[in-house]
Amino acid sequence: MNPDEFRAWGHRVVDWIADYREGVRSLPVLPATTPGEVAGALPDSAPEEPEGYEAIFTDFERLVLPAMTHWNHPGFFAYFPANNSEPSILAEMLTAALGAQCMSWQTSPAATELEQVVLRWLGDLLGLPRSFRGVIQDTASSATLLALLMARERTGLVNARVYASEEAHASVEKGARLAGFGSSALVRVPVDADHAMDPTALDAMLERDLQAGLRPAAVVATVGTTSSTALDPLEPVGALCRRHGVLLHVDAAFAGSAALLPEHASILRGVEHADSFVFNPHKWLFTNFDCSAHYVQDVDLLLRTCSTQPEYLRTAHDREVVNFRDWGIPLGRRFRALKLWFVLRRFGVTGLRSRLRRHIALARSFAEQVRAHPDFELAAPVPLSLVCFRWRPAGARARDPDPANEALLQEVNRSGRVFLTHTRLDGRYTLRLAVGQELTAEEDVEAAWELLQKGAEALRAEKEA
Ligand SMILES: *Cc1c(COP(=O)(O)O)cnc(C)c1O
């Protein structure tokens, strides 16, 4: 290959990225594309002969870009964020350049040691006891599966039960199935009025199951549920797990970042009872997907669950180093600690905290406006930066607010200015506004609120006409 060409195109790509970030607000968050359109515009087979970057890049702009959902658009309020930032993007470029495989210390000494150090920094910032040791997994789903595999290692599968609240993420059910417990071994613990796990109910279920000769293997508590950021109480849940020797895994995929803020550190009160804890810097800590920070207290249990020692991977250092290939499912691992290191250093703790605080403040001011409006209502408490709410339509639509809210969501998302998604809370269709993109500003949250009010107005007029 030609180093001068690489240099020239490298500069063009970085310029493109800078322009993209500056101009992304003017692009539609959701693409105007239909299923099959992109595939249909691509050739049937790979090119026989090399093509120039000019042609490839032109097609990137012509075919790919218009069919992308822009996750880092400032008007992206859907699901939970998968955010990024300049230092994270730069580090990802370097990770790609090094192209290292970080399965063991020997295959990438700096990657292994940096991963240990940044995860300790991060654990300290979250207030995790130093008895937790950290590893970067690809996703929270994998960390939850690993926790359940650890529970299986400890308790076995016979008569085993796994407990999680009715609001736990779908990855818990998937993990229970993949780990061999099966969906029927997953016991759903009822939630309280705020959609958080009811520890009294958990207590009763554990007692009942133990008396029936069943074997409680794991409890998965959620700090910040996906529907509404409900916070399962770790102190009482952890005490129950301790008493019965049940493995406790804490899924704080989105909300964990908030524990960096002293005023929100209490969301993890009781986490010292957990055997396993995961949160996603790739959701709300400005670090490109993928990067899940997974902490365990009993490393030996994790190693018993995952480690193998094939001859071809043995090295002279195995006794004195950590080989992260034994801390997770895949053998191969990307150098993900680099972007986290760049982010932590470039923003500093102060910069991270101010960004998180800004998001929480934006969500609260949106929630205030919803609360104050006669035709809208909040559907759940707003502990962090997610607002769950509903339109309360008057007239004929009042009898059936679910389709009315669904229509309103579609109307607002059609604008291209913002993107919101929905959930179901207490059986009712509920709109969600999740603030968490780095570039999101007050004007974007205001645009969402105006579009919602105008959309409601338009739908009301339509119904009356
Ligand atoms: C997003 C989310 C997950 C899944 O995260 P991945 O990293 O995509 O697997 C799990 N649990 C909760 C509570 C989430 O919000």
What's a quick, concise take on this entry?
By secondary structure, this protein is α/β, with parallel strands linked by helices. Helices cover 44% and strands 12% of the residues.
Word description of this protein:
The structure is a single chain. By secondary structure, this protein is an alpha/beta fold. The chain has 14 helices and eleven strands. The chain has helices at residues 3-23, 37-41, 53-64, 86-98, 109-126, 140-155, 170-178, 199-211, 234-244, 281-284, 299-306, 337-372, 401-414, 442-464, and strands at 133-137, 160-165, 186-189, 215-222, 247-251, 276-279, 292-296, 376-378, 386-391, 421-425, 428-434. The strands form two sheets. The chain has a seven-stranded mixed sheet with strand order 1-7-6-5-4-2-3, sandwiched between helices. A four-stranded antiparallel sheet has the order 8-9-11-10. The longest helix has 36 residues, at 337-372. It is globular. Pyridoxal-5'-phosphate binds next to helix 6. Pyridoxal-5'-phosphate binds at residues 80, 139-141, 169, 171, 222, 225-226, 251, 253-254, 280, 292.
